[in-house]
Write a structure and sequence with these properties.
The complex is a heterodimer of chains A (about 110) and B (about 110). Chain A has a five-stranded mixed β-sheet with strand order 1-9-8-3-4, with no helix packed on it. By secondary structure, chain A is mainly beta. Chain B starts with a strand and ends with a strand. Chain B is mostly beta strands and about 110 residues long. In chain B, strands 2, 4, 5, 6, 9, 10 and 11 form a seven-stranded mixed β-sheet that branches. A four-stranded antiparallel β-sheet of chain B has the order 1-3-8-7, with no helix packed on it. Chain B is built from no helices and eleven strands. Classes of the chains: A mainly beta (about 110), B mainly beta (about 110). At the A-B interface, strand 3 and strand 4 of A face strand 5 and strand 10 of B.
Chain lengths: ~110, ~110
Amino acid sequence: DAKTTQPPSMDCAEGRAANLPCNHSTISGNEYVYWYRQIHSQGPQYIIHGLKNNETNEMASLIITEDRKSSTLILPHATLRDTAVYYCIVRTSYDKVIFGPGTSLSVIP
Amino acid sequence: DTGVSQDPRHKITKRGQNVTFRCDPISEHNRLYWYRQTLGQGPEFLTYFQNEAQLEKSRLLSDRFSAERPKGSFSTLEIQRTEQGDSAMYLCASSLPGELSPLHFGNGTRLTVT
């Protein structure tokens, strides 16, 4: 079963930052937080992952709370092409990836 | 990097027929995964390979399902005696063997059983 909780849907205005929350209150010390997204009719796409430090790449930023029980994925300037389902996943380095239902993000013009 | 390739993209079959899907992973990736996704749900894990060895199978993978990766390169997923409940998107992913390697997904094969 998925070890995370996400809101089922969110809206964001185009050009604004999209902040997608994820709760993982039972995360253990060797588990990483991964984010994937899935645009309609495509396979999931890896975005970013982290253990306890905040991470940033060309797609997004990942903010993990100090107690590691929650995290936020930030898309700094959302575009219409960011409309997708976003999956937050907790796993160890050796686990298979287990997806929950994710958050459906709609970027509105 | 040509990405993960899946064939066919769409398959319509009648109940009771057998179907086979193919997945070509990224060339240097030695792990290969199969997932199934139904409308409105996240992908569900089915099975995965490291090279040619099938290391784990989900209990979702009934005895009508079989997956192979004979030479550690491409993989096939066969469903025998298809049922309407098998209608779904079948996704393949591959990854490097490293601890933190992310999965790279293909765009899936959509199966419709009539």
